[in-house]
Amino acid sequence: MNKKDDSKMEKIVSLCKRRGFIFPGSEIYGGLANSYDYGPRGVEIKNNIKNLWWKYFVQSRDDMTGLDGGILMSPKIWEASGHAEKFKDPLVECKKCHHRFRPDKLADASKCPDCGGEFTKEKFFSGMFKTTIGPVAEEGLVSYLRPETAQTIFVNYKNVLDSMNKKMPFGIGQMGKAFRNEITTGNFIFRTLEFEQMEIEYFISPTSDWNGIFENWVDYMRGFMKIIGLDEQKMHNHEIPDEERAFYSKRTIDMEYDFPFGQDELWAIAYRTDHDLSNHQKHSGQDLRYFDQQTSEKYIPRVIEPTFGTDRTVLAVISEAYCEEDAPTADGKTETRVVLKFDKKVAPVKIAVLPLSKKDELSGVAKNIAGTLRQNWMVEYDETQSIGKRYRRQDEIGTPYCVTVDFESLEDKAVTVRDRDTMRQERVAITELPGYFNNKFTY
What we know:
Elements: H1 6-18, E1 22-24, E2 36-38, H2 40-59, E3 64-67, H3 75-81, H4 83-86, E4 88-93, E5 100-101, E6 123-126, E7 129-133, E8 141-145, H5 150-164, E9 170-179, E10 194-204, H6 210-228, E11 235-239, E12 251-259, E13 262-273, H7 275-284, E14 290-292, E15 297-299, E16 302-309, H8 310-321, E17 322-328, E18 334-340, E19 351-355, H9 360-373, E20 379-381, H10 387-397, E21 401-405, H11 409-412, E22 414-419, E23 425-429, H12 433-440
Parallel strand pairs: 3-9, 19-20, 19-21
Antiparallel strand pairs: 1-2, 4-5, 4-6, 7-8, 9-10, 10-16, 11-12, 12-13, 13-16, 14-15, 17-18, 21-22, 22-23
């Protein structure tokens, strides 16, 4: 287990707001606890991760297809899945400060960690957000914001099967919002009330070697770490014991990552057996069996579920990339350089174009270069403050390359390209820049 580094976590949170990655939710109205908004650079990272996930897990596999299900669903779905009855957690409340906690998350369950007061007896609370569908609340249909994306896949399983002509085994991938009325929140975007999941339900026959397929998925999930630039040594497989698993799972592994605040769950994989489809068949009255043409048998498929917290993955990627190192200054001294060493594939800005001066003859050339490069890559144009400060600013947001247009560029029609990680600079002809960066961004 890694050592906690609270100071690093504080620096990351500060940088994320200062540089437009992640903002506190509803901040101008005093904020809303445990809610966050992704800023201009944060949304780029998030979208890059989601696009890479979709390509790796859905588009590049012939046994996968995609779905985008709704957030609001019939309340009968949550009754059939067991969430209405079982998606509850124990809760204690401090008699003095009235703060609430899950007792299993307390180091000392005998007293409040905030004020030392005594706790009430345990009560169970629903983890789902209740809402009403209809213009008149008293007459509306009581439903819930989905606490997981999985059920939209299960209730559409037969539609996908019939329309896509899929054969066993096959999977359905989905990305989307989920909502949980969490009592224990915190650690920035790690655990929030509203979050995003990237999730797969992989359907297999009852006679399959489910454990072997399960292990293959674990290995495949680890392959995604390399794609987004996470250190595999910081990921730990935690086998969840019987008494701690979710009510629908026969086997679960939490894939835990070494965050600055400690080791905790990043991704997970579960064997959900036929729990969901069998219950939906029973409650809906629809035949959800799969007809196997090779054996002429009908059966309810079993399901393996790889699941990924999108926001947690963003946090892991930023944590992994955050670096402080000594760097030379123009006068020969050294200073601490804060740099986000993102993998190029997830970096929010790929190239920054920086004219050495705001003078028209330089800014005109620089803007033309930015316009050309912007056709293929996310480009940022920056002409404010000294070139040294602009380099540091781009280092802090993780831009892999800076293109500097100087007065010499007007004569030799070339620019200086600076590498984020090595800080080395090389002269490149303006006309060769598209080909140059094509080679740099070959993934």
